[in-house]
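User: Working on a comparison across species. This one is SDR family NAD(P)-dependent oxidoreductase from Arthrospiribacter ruber. Can you predict its structure so I can line it up against the others?
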Amino acid sequence: MNLAITGPTSGIGEITLQKLIPHFDKVFLLARNADKAAKTIQSLPEDQQSKAEFIHLDLASMDSVVKAVKEIQEKSSQIDVLINNAGGIFHEKTVTDDGFELTFSANHLGHFLLTNKLMPWILKAENPKIINVSSEAHNAANVNFEDLNYEKKSYSAFTSYANVKLFNILFTKSLYEKYAEQGLQAFSLHPGVVKTNFASEAGGIFKVFWVLARPFMITAEQGAETSIFLAKNNIPSSQNGSYFKKSKPAKASKAANSKSMREKLWYNSEKLLAKWL
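Assistant: Here's the predicted structure for SDR family NAD(P)-dependent oxidoreductase from Arthrospiribacter ruber:
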């Protein structure tokens, strides 16, 4: 069995990797920083290190995503579990070289492209799974599908982050709708408010909130529990497509369950990524 995970070199991604690697034959660490990936691999038990392989992936560069997929396909016959774990919140509006707002690119578009390009390899698995790390922040989303890159409206770090966390859930439900009949299971999850360096790029009121909330936050080990649970366990088919909290199906927002919103998101994502898809 083969696992691919984004954002495996820090926070809950690193814990998820450490806990899951004994259960897989091969694990692809999809990350930007080769040095951090090397240190992460070296920190694994010696008998597990040979299973881990770094593949460069920058979710803010769609060319990088396409290249990463080709590498994975060259080095494996299938992917049994894909965990789209990487994410970030960014204080200042940044536009990538591809012309996308960075939060949108790094949290949604990059994973959308990665997942879709890898889909033939994922569907080769006997029990394929895709796990998307979302957040309760999705409840604060305020999406304008006419301005996904904040070209008209002023940029808000927190609203942009809330929107992409909603997109993670909408994307999951679309994957379930499109591929469940071919055996795919797709899940999204809220890891909890985790004490990591996650919000180091944030600023303004969100950074103040993060500092004040730190004493009440959970550890990265606790934050990784739901991802690990979903990857390791047989989940009933009745829960396929669901949003999870604390390893149990949970209620997502009304917007997260909107069929029209997930159809708009898929349509717009395909349109924006047409060059790479």
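For your comparison, note: The first helix runs from residue 11 to 20.

User: Helpful, thanks.
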